[in-house]
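Box 3.1. Reading complex inputs
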Amino acid sequence: MSLTISIDAMGGDFGASVTVPAALDCLKENAALTLILVGDTQVLAPLVAQAQSLYGNRLQIQHASQRVDMDESPAKALKNKKDSSMRVAINLVHEGRADACVSAGNTGALMATARFVLKMLNGIDRPAIISTLPSTYGHTYMMDLGANVDCSAEHLFQFAVMGNELVKAIDNTDSPRIGLLNIGEEDMKGNEQVKAAAKLLENSSLNYIGYVEGNSINAGNVPVDLIVCDGFVGNVSLKSIEGAAKMIGTTLKDAFSANIFTKLAALMAYPVLKRFKQRIDPRLHNGASFLGLRGLVIKSHGGADVLAFKTAIKLAEVEVRHNVIQKITQQVEATLAQRTLSS
Amino acid sequence: MSLTISIDAMGGDFGASVTVPAALDCLKENAALTLILVGDTQVLAPLVAQAQSLYGNRLQIQHASQRVDMDESPAKALKNKKDSSMRVAINLVHEGRADACVSAGNTGALMATARFVLKMLNGIDRPAIISTLPSTYGHTYMMDLGANVDCSAEHLFQFAVMGNELVKAIDNTDSPRIGLLNIGEEDMKGNEQVKAAAKLLENSSLNYIGYVEGNSINAGNVPVDLIVCDGFVGNVSLKSIEGAAKMIGTTLKDAFSANIFTKLAALMAYPVLKRFKQRIDPRLHNGASFLGLRGLVIKSHGGADVLAFKTAIKLAEVEVRHNVIQKITQQVEATLAQRTLSS
């Protein structure tokens, strides 16, 4: 099966210096892949001249004259940057020329543009962001990670329905275990939206396992496949975990750099420390999917390096190969229609 | 200066088997300290018989016939457990017989009982929970950590006013840097309560440094002394960090236990790994203070061991020595009165 992905080649903190090498690596590794690099031809053409002779039509450039800044307001980007690399990359998905789009650009602008160009699925009020985090059980999906600051119970339920389809498709599991993020496992705890969402989930056909707490993301007492929460809580939680990992990494490094003896110990432990680092490397979990849209958009971390951006492209490949958007569209509309009928 | 602390000796997952040894350790280390162990005399008396001959009147037992269960509803505990070790320990603070109370019991019941017995400060609507977390800069205070699931801007502002006084008193700093937890550092992001709280903080005399993200708790780009958020977000964030630390610890342990070579490396690296573990040991950050009450109550983690519970008692000693409650009472009432006048 051939697949085509559009790349916002100018997006992210490092633009083409990261996106182009990552794209070339992916082309090398997957012979069925076609990539359309979107951005300033004058910048991109010299970077890929050599590779184009190698990959022919599998490596294309689509010119776009503008670039959305990392701190630009979504509304301004939408209004003034109609020929941005971000917008054109999303247009390609809308026009059916690409199966998915990957961007490391400004999250707010990417979300607003994707929503404007691709439109929402029937029955879904808001798009949401889903990604995986490493856990002692392998990994955990979590959504929403920042698209929606205030969510009703109905929104949280919709996130669960969409996330459920994505996890089923990608992880090849029949019935993902879904948890609702709360501040206690007891029924009486939590805010009103979360309590009401729990009722909706209990009455659905989803495999709802109940409330889970923050520690369940990485290392809970019971395995959970998908954790649902509003975007404010999800984003704070995700960033808190990033901060904790960074602090622990720094502390470990400091401990091994303290003096000549600890440095010797570090040398002895080098292969172990390297394997440890690889196992928790956040670059291997880069890439978040926007769900709720009529098309596939993957957001990479803005500060992604080549390995991290490559991970995001590979995530797009996986989601296209598993028809994630088609499955979500069918199931979500069916589930929500059924709920409307039975309510 | 002599100081007296009441201990809910039956509270927590392990009750007297943890609280009593921790109490005895503290008495040994601080000759000015008096502890009143509250709980079932029949259980406690044999455990302290020997120590009482050593510490005389510095070690007292106050009988309480009941115990609040770890999963008991706060309302039921308040109604049916009037002679619980938790309630009696708080009563001692109310009666002026103790300067502070430490409990590892059920958080909800402890909060409800403390609020009922001690009453709120004038001008404060809700009590909140504050604690420190380790950071690359040393430590960061964070509040609320779970007492209030929904907070108005005014509540967030009150947390900042109270936390500011605590940090000033304990860390001996004039002007703690206060950040508001949000999902982006830009002004346009965040929910309505957070945006409105930012306005209140900007117009106050507090040293408000702006929005901070989740990663700032442990390892931000700029140092922050106190991070303010609602209790839902704070609790999820705290637990997320706990989960991340646990997963990273497990992964590191696994990497060093993989085979005979990695085990040899672990042996070589043992002193380094030990120092590393000590630096991030969560037991050395155990103990959260309830602020907003007319008396000092310290909550220990329910699963605290002797070292962790000792840390919580020592926190109570520090807060009593620095007159934290008195300072908060004076300053909070003054600040809030001034705001009322000028608004």
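In summary: The mean pLDDT of chain B is 92.
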